[in-house]
């Protein structure tokens, strides 16, 4: 079946602009995660959705970052007033089992964000 | 929070050689995964192995949960095995906590 998909694959934006990144999880997966990968910080967790429950936002680096998940499926990560330090690859993952039970996570190809 | 340490950070092999990658973690976990990140950045699932031993072709993995470590074995390495190998363990909310990775280069 289809894996996790993300769009766009690449995004170049000017400092101060807002951007939206999209993630389509594997069909039937209830848990969805956002991570980012940057040279200085490695792979770090941003936010977690379990079904229609309120998300765990504990990993978001600032209040310029927000995310939503509509209908328990597609998710959008929004970065407002982008800064150069936001440049990174943003990865989305989904899993069948809820986070506390430790389900296997599958990753999308990522969105490479460059802030100029 | 949980700390994940991978070793070695870099590894250069001749094609056909075997290798062992190690992952140490600082607390008990209910999820441990090994990934291969290919040159295009895609994270490929290798093993979901919170405990025990699994094998898939030339790759195998063992996790000893009570001693808080996992090993990834690569036998008869090929140039296509090159890339970065990540170990990741499950945090309290189920999010993965990644090590810094082992960069493997296999020379023909």
Tell me what you see in this structure:
Chain A has strands at 5-7, 10-13, 19-24, 31-38, 42-50, 65-69, 75-79, 88-95, 105-107, 111-115. Chain A is mostly beta strands. In chain A, the strands form two sheets. In chain A, strands 2, 4, 5, 8, 9 and 10 form a six-stranded mixed sheet that branches. A four-stranded antiparallel sheet of chain A has the order 1-3-7-6, with no helix packed on it. The termini of chain A are far apart. The model of chain A has no long low-confidence stretch (mean pLDDT 91). Chain B is mostly beta strands and 108 residues long. Chain B has no helices and eleven strands. Chain B has strands at residues 4-7, 10-14, 19-25, 32-37, 43-48, 52-56, 59-64, 69-74, 83-90, 96-98, 102-107. The radius of gyration of chain B is 13 Å and the shape is globular. The mean pLDDT of chain B is 95. Chains A and B meet through strand 4, strand 5, strand 8 and strand 9 of A and strand 5, strand 9 and strand 10 of B.
Quick structural gist:
The complex is a heterodimer of chains A (116) and B (108). Helix content of chain A is 0%, strand content 48%.
Number of strands of chain B: 11
Residues in helix, % of chain A: under 10%
Strand content of chain A: over 45%
Class by SSE composition of chain A? mainly beta
């Amino acid at each position: 079946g289809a894996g996790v998909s993300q769009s766009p694959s690449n995004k170049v934006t000017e400092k101060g602009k807002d951007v939206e990144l999209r993630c389509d999880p594997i069909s039937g997966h209830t848990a969805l995660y956002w991570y980012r990968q940057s040279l200085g910080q490695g792979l770090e967790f941003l936010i977690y959705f379990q079904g229609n429950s309120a998300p765990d936002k504990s990993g978001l680096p600032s209040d310029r970052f927000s995310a939503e998940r509509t209908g328990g499926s597609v998710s959008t990560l929004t970065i407002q007033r982008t800064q150069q330090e936001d440049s990174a690859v943003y990865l989305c993952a989904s899993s069948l089992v809820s986070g506390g039970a430790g389900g296997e996570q599958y990753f999308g190809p990522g969105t490479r964000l460059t802030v100029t | 929070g949980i700390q994940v340490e991978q070793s070695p950070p870099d590894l250069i092999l001749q094609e056909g050689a075997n290798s062992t990658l190690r992952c140490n973690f600082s607390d008990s976990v209910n999820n441990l995964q090994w990934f291969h990140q290919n040159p295009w950045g895609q994270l490929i699932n290798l093993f979901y192995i919170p405990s025990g031993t699994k094998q898939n072709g030339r790759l195998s993995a063992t996790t000893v949960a009570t001693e808080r470590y996992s090993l990834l074995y690569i036998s008869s390495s090929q140039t296509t095995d090159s890339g970065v190998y990540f170990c990741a363990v499950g945090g309290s909310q189920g999010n993965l906590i990644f090590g810094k990775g082992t960069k493997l280069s296999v020379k023909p």
